[in-house]
Amino acid sequence: MGQPLNVGIIGCGSIVAQYLATFARLGTVRLVAVADLMAERAAAVAAEVPGVRALSIDDLLADPEIALVVNLTIPLAHAEVSERIIAAGKDVYSEKPLAADGAAGAGVLRVATDAGRWVGCAPDTVLGTGTQTARRVIEDGAIGRPIAATATMVTPGHERWHPNPDFYYLPGGGPLLDMGPYYVSALIHLLGPVVSVIGSASRLREERVIGSGERAGERVPVEIDTHITGVLEHASGALSTLVMSFDAVATRSANIEVHGEAGSMVVPDPNTFDGDVLVRMLGDTDWVVEAPSAGYIDAGRGVGIHDRALVGDAARASGEVGYHALNVMESVLRAAATRTSVAVASTCTVPPRVELQKL
């Protein structure tokens, strides 16, 4: 395996704990330092992990020991911070989405290409046994040619639990750009790139009330649509229907369903790494659980960086897929605003399947 990949983290908000938990289990990744605009947050993270230093952002970027920086800043800052990381001569792995809009995302990839640096992008949930086993079922032809898929994410809004939910309701946020990357990325891995979309959108209310933390009771303005529906036309001919909402109460299933000529399949919630893949063939009266047969076993957030350490530039949680997913989501929003069908400007090569292996 060689030496571990030395990484730093910029952004020590709520999500960082999940990355720390994964890195602690890996022999392929070594966390060197963390930074945040709020120095006390970086210090608190560093205090939890022996040997990790809390640095300023400038000092972290200047550290020659660090080869890759994980960008866990808010979505509106993703592109700017990623470009700073690249300019410092380091590879970058960004939380989703790659950027707040497609133009900024294209800029990140262009700067990286010019500098000869690698860009990765969450979500890496698609590398777990759930989505990867489902992908194997499709690639093996078990359900026949895929015809359609559905993907639904319904919640009353993140302000109910997040102490600082403002960015969810600003441009670059909303249910589609926040949660859609999990679903759209999974659909890309399962059914291939998307060529065109249609969509509709609405907004239930103009402000939200924070439900937890020191700011509980404070009102947050809503500047974006909070209920999005779209239909994605994949290059393969399959049609996927998306429902992404911060306005409704709940759904009985956050799973993806894929329907083929010979059978249907339930794919686990793409915001998780594992779960049961269910298949029901034409003529059957019940669903059958598929044993895990592809993907990283017991994966967690940050497995995409582990994959990078193992396979180098061929790492599957790539900026190319992240950019295409962003283009797809942005196209759905544009289609909703214009009430027209919108062609997706980009495409991507679907990365190779992950063969079944322990993290």
- The radius of gyration over CA amounts to 20 Å
Task: Assign a percent range to the helix content.
Answer: 25-40%
> Secondary-structure element sequence?
EHEHEHEHEHEHEHEEEEEEEEEEHHEE
Strand order of the largest sheet: 16-15-14-13-7-12-11-8-18
Major pleated sheet: 9 strands, mixed
| Full CATH superfamily name of the largest domain | Dihydrodipicolinate Reductase, domain 2
Tally of distinct domains = 2
Low-confidence stretches: none
The tally of beta strands, per DSSP, is: 19
Task: Classify the secondary structure makeup into a structural class.
Answer: alpha/beta
Shape: globular
Q: What's the CATH class label of the largest domain?
A: Alpha Beta
Mean pLDDT: 96
CATH architecture of the largest domain: 2-Layer Sandwich
What is the third-level CATH name, the topology of the largest domain?
Dihydrodipicolinate Reductase, domain 2
- In whole angstroms, how far apart are the ends? 13 Å
The percentage of residues in β strands lies in 15-25%
Number of helices: 9
